[in-house]
């Protein structure tokens, strides 16, 4: 079982409350479902993991509230360090016989998000310039999650990739295992 600290417990509790609100019918279901998707998203999970990692490593001999406040500020600073690359973006690549010009890692087999592991020098992705090594692949032509099929014959040109960049610090944290 993975380590689950206070942020994880808070997220789980928020999801429970959302489900209770959903059953009550007091709030439009679309709004609750949208909020639930955010709380269960890879991004929210990455924020929680960074927060928990920083919380465990911060050396403050003070109250839990002071430690939590310092951790929250450090977590925000870590995300701010990725300056402008922290928002999902869409990269359109033309479909050619030479492929898209990048390699990936992760996916269902590794129970991990899919990341761009290499941009092939001189390839389509390299010439386009929109992808970076470390980009997390969020969707391909609107197909979300780890359900992508990377056989080019499945997609009509252009191939639209929705990606999200985690800077080196965040990329390392998102692969850390907690006990």
UniProtKB/TrEMBL annotation:
<dbReference type="InterPro" id="IPR036034">
    <property type="entry name" value="PDZ_sf"/>
</dbReference>
<dbReference type="InterPro" id="IPR036892">
    <property type="entry name" value="L27_dom_sf"/>
</dbReference>
<dbReference type="InterPro" id="IPR014775">
    <property type="entry name" value="L27_C"/>
</dbReference>
<dbReference type="GO" id="GO:0008092">
    <property type="term" value="F:cytoskeletal protein binding"/>
</dbReference>
<dbReference type="Pfam" id="PF00595">
    <property type="entry name" value="PDZ"/>
</dbReference>
<dbReference type="Pfam" id="PF02828">
    <property type="entry name" value="L27"/>
</dbReference>
<dbReference type="GO" id="GO:0097025">
    <property type="term" value="C:MPP7-DLG1-LIN7 complex"/>
</dbReference>
<protein>
    <submittedName>
        <fullName>Lin-7 homolog C, crumbs cell polarity complex component</fullName>
    </submittedName>
</protein>
<dbReference type="InterPro" id="IPR004172">
    <property type="entry name" value="L27_dom"/>
</dbReference>
<feature type="domain" description="L27">
    <location>
        <begin position="7"/>
        <end position="62"/>
    </location>
</feature>
<dbReference type="InterPro" id="IPR001478">
    <property type="entry name" value="PDZ"/>
</dbReference>
<dbReference type="GO" id="GO:0002011">
    <property type="term" value="P:morphogenesis of an epithelial sheet"/>
</dbReference>
<feature type="domain" description="PDZ">
    <location>
        <begin position="90"/>
        <end position="146"/>
    </location>
</feature>
<dbReference type="GO" id="GO:0097016">
    <property type="term" value="F:L27 domain binding"/>
</dbReference>
<dbReference type="InterPro" id="IPR051109">
    <property type="entry name" value="MAM_complex_regulator"/>
</dbReference>
<dbReference type="GO" id="GO:0005737">
    <property type="term" value="C:cytoplasm"/>
</dbReference>
């Amino acid at each position: 079982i993975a380590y689950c600290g206070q942020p994880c417990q808070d997220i789980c509790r928020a999801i429970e409350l959302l489900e209770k609100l959903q059953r009550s019918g007091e709030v439009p279901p679309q709004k609750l479902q949208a909020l639930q998707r955010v709380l269960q998203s890879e991004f929210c999970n990455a924020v929680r993991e960074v927060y928990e990692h920083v919380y465990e490593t911060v050396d403050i001999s003070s109250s839990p509230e002071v430690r939590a406040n310092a951790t929250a500020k450090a977590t925000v600073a870590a995300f701010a360090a990725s300056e402008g690359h922290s928002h999902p973006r869409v990269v359109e690549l033309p479909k050619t016989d030479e492929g898209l010009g990048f390699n990936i890692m992760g996916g269902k087999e590794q129970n991990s998000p899919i990341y761009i592991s290499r941009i092939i020098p001189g390839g389509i992705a390299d010439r386009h310039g929109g992808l970076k090594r470390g980009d997390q692949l969020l969707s391909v032509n609107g197909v979300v999650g780890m359900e992508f099929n990377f056989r080019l014959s499945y997609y009509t040109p252009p191939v639209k990739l929705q990606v999200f960049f985690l800077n080196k610090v965040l990329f390392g944290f998102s692969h850390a295992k907690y006990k």
